[in-house]
Fold:
Amino acid sequence: MENVLEVKNLKKIYRNGRGITDISFDINQGEIFGLLGPNGSGKTTIMKSITGLVRPNEGTVKICGKNILDNFEDAIVNVGCLIETSSFIGHMSCYNNLKFISNYYDYIDKSRIDEVLQMTGLAAYKNDKVKTFSLGMKQRLAIAMAIYQKPKLVILDEPANGIDIEGTKELRRIVSDLAKEFMISFLISSHQIYEIEMLCDKIMILQNGKIIDTCTVKSIKGVGISLEDYFIEKMSSK
Amino acid sequence: MNAVLTCTKNETFKIFSKKKFIFLFLLSISITVLASMVNLLADRRLGGPLINNATIPVTVLNFMSALFLPLFILMLTSDLFSGEFSDNTIIMSLVRPVTRNKLYVSKILAIGVSIMCILLGTFVISVVASFMGGNLSYCIDKLPSNFMAYVFAVVPMLLIAIVTAFIAQFTKSGSLTVVIMITVSILISAISIIFPEIMPFMPTTYLSWHQNFYSNLDFSKIISELLYISSYGIMFMFAGSYMFHQKDV
Structure:
């Protein structure tokens, strides 16, 4: 299977001394990879380093074989992301926000805008200004913007934040469908262990910016314990 | 190049969709209309115009380039840089297939396009206003030089945008960038008064560069002042884009 993301010895230390060290992992095509860890464990920093939002001190990030630092445009074209808070222009409509980003991908037909609006359940609100949206609707729009360009890798940082129960279930369906049908890979971080357990094929547990474990969800289930218990066990053992 | 064009188009669209821009565009046109109305009224009631109608485009441009446009550019540039960092909307552009350097250049170009639109809009209105006051042949005579002055007024205004974009790399607040820029320009003016000999080296000296196009063209002065503007522009552009490139979000 094609390797979509390759992270090797990633290190990023902020001025306050916090950050991540020695992070290495791969994501294959169609794989859903989860990042688990308490607040400040480095999940967002990993995602920001992959997307070039922060410059790592050491290490390499390759997306579809292209180094994000040396060949940014060719690497990032394969990535869609939602990192920290969703980011869009509030005074513009939902449709115009998608049209705004669509200009960067002129090889994709504009009808894709309606397609992603339909997929995320926002078609009825396409002409509404984003500043009038609820947190959940903003999150849906951010997901629509992340998948617009049919990326090979989608990075979602706390995607279920602010989304109601039905929306969360719908989000799970969207992610699994995209992974199965279009072989899109996902890198997802969440505080909701249940979400990760339901969605991911593989997980990485982080603490204080370091990897404490990488395993498959299947292997944990095989042992007969829940991911929650496994996570707590790993955290307390370190 | 294609990425820069796409990005410039996007950034310009972003600026044009801001209420602030529409308000300032309408305000600049209102200033011109108001100036010509006051002049017409003075002509009818006081027996003569306050200013020669044919010079309305020049008067309006002087007013705009001295006060109105620089303030507008400060607000716009700080919005596009510090403002976007503070509300995280910058991420929307940073995770797209365009390098940070190209994005930086595009933002500056988009500001240039917006200024040009305001200047050309104001030019058209001010020319119509000047025609209404009579002395048609003088107005037509002055038309090419006034047009050049309006077009080239974008050059010193772009320098303000470039310097502001550089300052914006140090702050995460749009209003702080504006305050710093105003303070710096006051300091530069004060220093230039105390030490007049350093005036030629101050970037603020060349903000009225477009006035060289009002009458007889002195090419040596135009080129030497343009070189000063370009030097400052290049320096601040490189420094600003380097910092933008290195900045963690």
Remarks:
- The CA atoms of residues 32 and 186 of chain A lie 5 Å apart.
